[in-house]
Design goal:
about 425 residues; three-stranded antiparallel β-sheet; 3 strands; about 70% helix; about 0% strand
């Protein structure tokens, strides 16, 4: 089962790497779970969740079943389902919950007509517990009831096939039931997103849900085995609980890894800003110039349609392209007269020094250091440090080089009257 707890944010890949777009989606989803829904989001959740109840209630009364489980069995099923419902794996902006372990036995032990309402009751109980713990906002109840449509898929397939005890020879029916579960889940979330945005990306949604579907597809056979055992030993379905406990441990470890990845992403940004402050403290002109270049670079990156990761790299490179100058003697950097060839050679070492400093930090900033090395390369091949030319120069380095040059000739480092005259000349050309 997937809980699309943040359908108002973009779909995202699991946050396994420092991808800014994925990080932003995960953080937005986490914030969304502990804050209230907007009025439109709430009404849409109420509409879709209310539709689920509107279908489930009459189905419970109209569908006749010969099954009559004991109250103890029914209570144990609900209690176990509540326990498993609280095991949540983060997959991008959605959550995967291994309720398949208990949903499958429930389909064979309880009257089919009441299964959707039992699941709705479990959702209410589970969310009340999580709300009491401060893990979610009360509004999430309506989102999760809207997600409960997935239960109706297998219930309807098995009802049409006729209620019967589990039997492995009926595997085509069970496969169809699983497919119906995925189909109902996809359609319910797609409808909700369409009502919110008047559009949705079906392939992106399917890709996001596919991770939770894999979990359900893997756990469904185990749930079926528990159902087979429960035909003669009704309490046998409880044997899945140790596996659920193990999955809970894995879920917590995954959450901790995601926490660490997000913290590391913030740490890289903080380190980049700190190094930028060091540059400014060492040379006020270089520091303010770097901030100007950052603004220009981000504008160019947006115009060129760079993806989130390339845009982040461009921002860091723009901020740190002159960081190596802290290793260059101040008297050379601030020399008012023309530089000697020897002094020019020392200045041109700042790209290599910048790379060396950032590679020592490592990770994302280490990769940024390789781009900093190329920020003074020229398309014609007459730049430094490696004499690269044309497209052999990384795109981010080309962007920073152009913005750096523009910033340099439009600041008070040059005679403003001369610059204005140059601009007029270029405009008239």
């Amino acid at each position: 089962m997937a809980i699309d707890a943040a359908s108002h944010v973009p779909s995202a890949r699991p946050a396994r790497t420092l991808d800014p777009e994925a990080d932003a989606a995960v953080e937005a989803a986490r914030v969304g779970r502990v804050t209230g829904l907007g009025s439109r989001q709430l009404w849409v959740a109420l509409l879709v969740g209310g539709g689920f109840l509107a279908v489930s209630l009459p189905f419970a009364f109209l569908h006749h079943s010969a099954r009559a489980p004991s109250l103890l069995t029914a209570f144990a099923l609900v209690a176990a389902y509540v326990a498993v419902y609280r095991v949540e794996f983060e997959f991008g902006s959605a959550l995967a919950v291994p309720t398949q372990l208990l949903l499958v036995p429930m389909l064979f032990l309880l009257p089919l007509g009441v299964v959707p309402l039992v699941v709705a009751g479990v959702i209410v109980l589970g969310n009340l517990v999580e709300q009491a713990e401060g893990r979610i906002h009360f509004d999430q109840l309506f989102i999760r009831l809207a997600n409960a449509w997935h239960v109706l898929g297998p219930v309807l397939v098995l009802a049409l096939a006729g209620e019967s005890d589990p039997n492995l020879s009926h595997w085509p029916i069970y496969l169809a039931a699983l497919g119906a579960q995925f189909g109902f889940e996809f359609l319910s979330i797609a409808v909700r997103r369409w009502l919110l945005h008047q559009s949705y990306a079906p392939f992106s949604l399917a890709r996001t849900l596919s991770l939770a579907w894999r979990v359900d597809a893997i756990l469904a056979p185990l749930g079926l085995l528990a159902a087979l055992a429960a035909v003669t030993q009704p309490a046998a379905f409880l044997l899945v609980l140790p596996l659920a406990a193990l999955l809970r441990t894995f879920a917590r470890e995954r959450g901790a890894r995601i926490d660490a990845a997000l913290e590391l992403s913030h740490a890289y940004r903080g380190t980049a800003l700190l190094l930028g402050d060091v540059v400014e403290a060492d040379d006020a002109y270089t520091g303010s110039h770097s901030r100007d270049v950052v603004a220009l670079v981000l504008g160019v990156a947006d115009d060129l349609g760079l993806d989130a990761r390339a845009r982040r790299d461009a921002e860091f490179v723009a901020l740190l392209h002159d960081v190596g100058k802290i290793k260059i003697p101040t008297e050379i950097i601030n020399k008012p007269a023309a530089l000697t060839p020897e002094e020019r050679a020392v200045i041109e070492r700042h790209t290599l020094e910048g790379e060396r400093l950032l590679v020592q930090v490592g990770g994302v900033l280490g990769e940024v250091g390789k781009l900093v090395r190329s920020c003074h390369e020229h398309v014609g091949g007459n730049g430094y440090s490696d004499g690269l030319a044309g497209e052999s120069i990384p795109l981010v380095a080309r962007i920073v080089c152009a913005c750096d040059a523009y910033s340099a000739i439009t600041t008070d480092r040059f005679d403003p009257d001369v610059v204005e005259a140059l601009a007029r000349t270029l405009a008239a050309a």
